[in-house]
Write a structure and sequence with these properties.
The chain is an alpha+beta fold and 248 residues long. The chain has two domains: 7-52, no CATH class; 71-239, no CATH class. Helices cover 29% and strands 25% of the residues. It has seven helices and ten strands. Strands 3, 4, 5, 6, 7, 8, 9 and 10 form an eight-stranded mixed β-sheet that branches. A two-stranded antiparallel sheet has the order 1-2. The longest helix has 19 residues, at 7-25. The radius of gyration is 22 Å and the shape is elongated. It starts with 6 loop residues before the first helix and ends in a 9-residue tail after the last strand. Residues 51-58 have low confidence and may be disordered.
Length: 248
């Protein structure tokens, strides 16, 4: 211990605090610690090398990090790049969904119309402001090869450094890019669970846009608990860097 000084001592103290918190919260058990400490150095190094691809990059609402396997990157492909959308100058977060309904109710069928509104989606993780620019890509999970949950889709979006705009983001995609939405797909605008509306049965609703084969559109909700199928696609909103040029 005499060689552990300065910054190393501070790191060790932080690790001790983190260790105790994980044990108290149940995310790490005493038996797991005993098993780890019983290994010799060579075996521990082997386990670390085997799991080097498991990078902690997804932070849950409670602040706990979950390892996101790098292989998730290989389970998604870009369905369409919608380019850069700009939040209109007259955009008002509190009234966006109500205004969107008034402007589009004749052309847009609402699946759960009364449930997609500011009362149920008042606080997306990323609240948009006039003039904001976001690059929007649509990713399709490899549903024919593996079973992907919407929770894993959220983890994948963290790898893309995505921001979660919720129902308002989906409304802007419809307003500015509906001609680029592929037929037969639900374009889901994900968010963390504590920012979603909860059904009476305890499920979480994710807002999105669907384009039917006859070119009609739905503004809809899907259950966060559902797994992905051939009809689901994931909207990925990322902040536009200063040097990015606007795409048409």
């Amino acid at each position: 211990m005499s060689n552990i000084i300065g910054a190393d001592a501070a790191k060790l103290a932080g690790l001790q605090i983190d260790l105790l918190q994980k044990i108290r919260h149940g995310s790490l058990t005493v038996d797991q610690m005993k098993w780890w400490l019983s290994l010799n150095s060579t075996t521990r190094n082997h386990h670390m090398e085997e799991n080097i691809r498991m990078t902690p990059c997804y932070e849950a609402p409670n602040g706990e990090f979950f390892p996101t396997p790098e292989h998730l990157v290989d389970e998604f492909s870009v369905l369409v790049d919608l380019g850069i959308i700009t939040v209109p100058n007259d955009y008002v977060h509190k009234t966006q969904l109500e205004k969107f309904d008034e402007q589009n109710h004749k052309d847009l069928y609402y699946y759960f119309r009364d449930r997609i509104g500011e009362d149920n989606f008042p606080n997306p993780t990323r609240i948009l402001k006039p003039g904001d620019k976001l690059h929007v890509r649509v990713f399709e999970p490899a549903w024919d090869k593996v079973t992907i949950t919407l929770e894993e889709c959220l983890m994948f979006l963290s790898l893309q450094k995505a921001v979660h705009t919720g129902a308002p983001g989906a409304s802007l995609v419809y307003s500015q890019r509906r001609d680029q939405i592929e037929k037969g797909k639900w374009y889901c605008s994900l968010d963390e669970k504590d920012h979603l509306w909860t059904y009476s049965v305890g499920h979480y609703g994710v807002a999105g846009i669907h384009r039917n084969s006859d070119d009609s559109f739905w503004f809809h909700l899907v259950d966060f608990e559902h797994v992905c199928n051939h009809a689901k696609a994931i909207l990925c909103f990322t902040e536009v860097e200063c040097d990015e040029t606007e795409k048409s």
